[in-house]
Amino acid sequence: MPTRSSPAAVSPTTAYAALERRFARLTAIEDSIAFLHWDQSAVMPAGGASSRADQLATLAGLHHDLLTAPDTAEMIALADPLAEAESAEDGAWRLANLAEITRLHAHAMALPGDLVEALSRAGNACERVWREARPLGDFALVEGPLGQLLGLVRDSAAAKAEALGVAPYDALLDQYEPGGSSARIDEIFDDLEAFLPDFLGRVIERQGAAAEAPAGPFPIPTQQAVGRATMESLGFDFDHGRLDVSLHPFCGGSPQDLRLTTRYDEADFTSALMGVIHETGHALYEQGLPRDRLSQPVGRARGMSVHESQSLLFEMQAGRSRAFISHCAPAWKAAFGGEGEAWRADSLYRHFTRVEPGFIRVDADEVTYPAHVIVRYRLEKALIEGRMALGDLPAAWNDAMERLLGVRPPNDRLGCLQDIHWYDGAWGYFPTYTLGAMTAAQVFDAASRAVPDIGPAIGRGDFTPLLGWLRTHIHAKGCRLSTDALLREATGRPLDASVFKAHLTRRYLEDR
Fold this sequence. Notes:
Helix content is 64%, strand content 3%. It is mainly α. A three-stranded mixed sheet has the order 1-3-2, sandwiched between helices.
């Protein structure tokens, strides 16, 4: 006779319902982890680091234990998501949810619980040392903790690669870009690397002398006010989010309680402002996800290339457009008490679209940005595959920057210490930035063709037409479709580098 806990005693209908309840609890744990990370980055006192590491590791372990419990696999095998579907549409969502549940379960089952907790502790410890090492430009200070973390990341990659039947790097990539492959990324990045040097030279020759930059200082309270006003104009809901300060800008929290951060420089208001627009793009995606499915995997963001496409769409496609800058110029001039030629709309547009190779990824222009990502992708892939020693990273970074962009960082603060990702365990993430930039160009192009008023509306400071189209065609889809299917449905084609190149050509060669 079947027992109460055996799979034979559970119907396909109740199995699926039980999975939904379980993943609602898992989502709550994930959100709690996200809030603890935000608190650690934005407001936690330094003395709380040790206890925070314990909290995060404990939650990571509890999440893993719940996800890998024996009855989770039993419920996945038995579940029939269509049994109580209210409609064909509801059934499609349920089937997609079960597919996501299965993918997440496969990732979790590949790792033992002690490795999951060890990764959390090592990432937390390494990030704390990175915060000390970065301002000092001292890679040697963090090399030991990073080496320990990298060893665990390699163990995780190897275990997941065996379970998923993919290469180790691809196993890491799948955490951020489901279904992505390094072979496809190599093809895309090789094409961009062949395109960019000549294009960059033509752009620099065409743009001529730099426009006069607005002169500071720009008081931080004024920058904060301008940033908040910009967020509101983009459509951000402050009843479900807030803006704070951290060493590295990010968007965290949960879809109904988003926590954005930026960093300010009194000598340059543009960096923080563009950072705010970028993170608001992330937040608008989260705020537009299907509310009735937020507790389930299918109701969350599709992947990081889509996520980055939304942030870069607002920052680069819209935020640096001539229409938007022309609209904002008078308000910025008034807010900062600006005077002179530098505050004219055309001068500001030339300033915001200035192309110049530099050291810092988050401050890079659209033309040079892909090279920053290519450098990081190739280095992290070599480190994961054991083709490069960790101690060689600073020099390898500097060599790659010099080869691709013609600049050599004078110190590690401007080199391999600038990004938080590797130091908190996010290996395999970097390629999604450039995939996101390409996706952003394609999505914005499709939206503008479908709704011709999007461009003129942005020129009036009205993002309603753009956000409305994104809500329908991107945000509300959650994880129901694969990344490729979502892009095909929204734009009518798979990811196409020619759209990105055409956008760069129009903005940086033709509109000058």
